[in-house]
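Most newcomers find our protein records easier to grasp once they have seen one. To make this concrete, we reproduce a full record directly below:

===
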Amino acid sequence: MQEYTAYRPNVAAIILSSDYDLTREFVIARRTGMRRGWQFPQGGIDTDETPREALFRELREEIGTDDVKVLGEYPEWIRYDFPETRSSKIYPFKGQSQRYFLVQLNPGATLNLHTYAVPEFEEYRRVTIDELFKRVAYFKRPSYRRVIDYFQKEGLL
């Protein structure tokens, strides 16, 4: 059994469509090679950057744009453990400690999943809140629910 040392510092972007006020749709993406790997873009925070800087870098890397408006930030770090089958892939981390941001795509923003030779995502789609919770990975659902509930209570959704 491997010894885990910590939780990986990470940012995640809850992405609203540019016309969210009319459609009430979120934008999620499916990880390359994972049939059920739907999620919001996320990624590690480098040692020399703030969570907000990491947010914009990760958006550029994963969906090819940072043409977004930041609407809010969840006030706490949220931890989750990796499923046992995935833990060894990201050793030595037991899981992630995430900072969530609520962002909305600006009108005219274009997503490009092929910004790197090996894209992290192979497909994206706009989904309602009900479809979101049916599609995303089971171990991410509690965190997503907590954050979305918070943004709803704050009047941002």
